[in-house]
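To: structure subgroup
Subject: Chain for Friday's discussion

All,

I'm putting the inputs and outputs inline so they're searchable in the archive.
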Amino acid sequence: MRLPMAVPAVVGYGALQLIAVLACAGTTLGDPGEPMIWPAFGIAAMWLLVSGESRRRWPVTGAIGLFTAGGLAVTGTPVGIALLEGLAAMLGAVAFVFAVARRQPGPRPPADGGRWLSRLTDLWDLLLCAGVASLAANVLRIAGDLLLGGERTFMITGVTALFLRDAVSVVVFGTAVRLLAGLGGDQRGRTWSRHGPEALAVFAVSAGAYWAVFSIQAELPIGFVLIPLTVWAALRLPSLVVVLHVAVFDCAALLWTVGGHGPYAVVADVELRAVLIQLYAGILACVGLALAISRDERDTLIQRLQVSEQEATDKATMMTTVVNSMTEGLAILDHTGRLVLRNPAAGRLLGSVPAVTGGAALGTDHGFFQPDGSPLSDDELPHVRVLAGQDVAPMDVLVRNSAVPEGRVVRFNAARLALGTGPYHVVVVFHDVTADRRHRDELMSFAGRVAHDLLNPLTTIEGWAEVLEQELAGYRPAERVQRIQRAAARMRTFLNGLLSYTAARDGKLMPTTINMALLVGDVINSRLDQAENAGEAPPYFEVGRLDPVEADPVLLRQLLENLIDNSLRMMAPGVAPYLAISCQPAPNGLLRIDILDNSLGIPPGLRHEVFTSFHREKGATNANGLELAICKRIVERHGGTIEATANPYGAGTRMSFTLPAGRSAYARALAPIR
């Protein structure tokens, strides 16, 4: 597909380059004998550029030199000078391509067919690359002239005129050819239908103005009055039309000047005259292209902004619809705690008027309480704690106000929302958990009552089993009685766990300052005594610093015993148990207590599941599945958190939980116990 499309392009560029050489070879000014209009240089540069990295690049380079030298020779230029100009054209084109490659992503045409000169920075890159190409060509001309014995004499003004001529050729004629080559037929049709009348008007007015300045008022230096015509074209017409306007009237000005007419023809010095007319052509091209590209860039940005605005509007409409249709409440608060946005579900759940936007502060004036009905201060609200920089777990809040007199338990999830500028906001998502909590509470209360009621017949079973064991002592059926006793013991363990969980959930907290070192030491001594009575190897405990905590003594002892017993149950056979217990400060006035062991450990996927009710660890014995659930409930009732992670110092598990730091000064941590 590429070759058939590339061959006409090569032929077209070659034909244009040869026509440009033949047509403009005679546009010389004065003694230097150099053409003042030289589009061949710009066409050659673009021809080589569009050849890309293909194998045709070197044949194209040779064709550039051949067409330039041959065309000049046909028009009567001496062979030596014609060959020198051919080499200069080749070197200029190669230098232009090299400069473009070094300036990526500068004026190189996009590979996906994007527009040429789509940004203002592309124009500056184009000017730089054109200057490099012109400089290389003129250096070769001067060096070649010296080798030819000074057949042509180059002065500073003459070299400057040639430098400007070649650079203008690339900027004006090369750009025009490139834009024409990249514009499809349908695009040309749309461009003409939209801008044709105004383009004709601009060209007609410009033709009259140039004729007046260069013919009627030829001796007055008023060429600057023609620049507004280029500004008009640049502000109103497409870039291609602007480039064609510049090319046409640059050529007109140059031809009038070569013919001895116009404001620049009055300059006596021919070389200075050439510099001035080329400088005028360059300024006209730069002004027109800079304005046209800036306008195109502005229009493109406006179009993108309009598209983005429409997309944002559509997304906002979609998000508003989604938010308003949610059954969960959603609220966004600013850094002062005032509502920025809330959905209708938020109003229904909190008992206020449904609205998409708010403005009032979300505080305890809404009737917020602890789930047990105790007061809740503003500082304890989840969104206030998040605004204070705390990490807040999901929190249940009792909502009771005039709109919700019966009360409703709502679970709040608050998270920080960092915006690009200004202070961050808070997103609060909440939903009604009243039915779930009621169902769970009723179920656990029922389980507690059943467990309590079953203890009486279980005690009877255990008593009669003991009597039966004594009567059958020495007989074989006594082994079956022992099975009854073991089953009864397992059942008692399970029922005691249910009762403990119910107490941990419903029992009234009586917090006091507890010396953790004394309590942990007492629990450790009891476990050492159990191991000794059972004839087992005693576990090794390493206790670090333990600061006092504010907690319920009964529940805290149960918490420590459950965690230590859980670690001992999870030991691998034949492994001597090792536990390390220590604490460290935690944010928000809490202490973090760590219990590390060398047990089998907990798989990563089960480290959250182990705290659910009736979960049994693989390999654990003598467990009812409620021990860690009880631990979680005790810690949460004290306002802390608990988690299970891998032991960072080896095999095993690290249980970490937080409790409020002790308030009384008398309870001081003891020295570490080992």
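Points worth raising on Friday:
DSSP finds 17 helices and 13 strands in the chain.
Residues 102 and 129 are 9 Å apart (CA to CA).

D.
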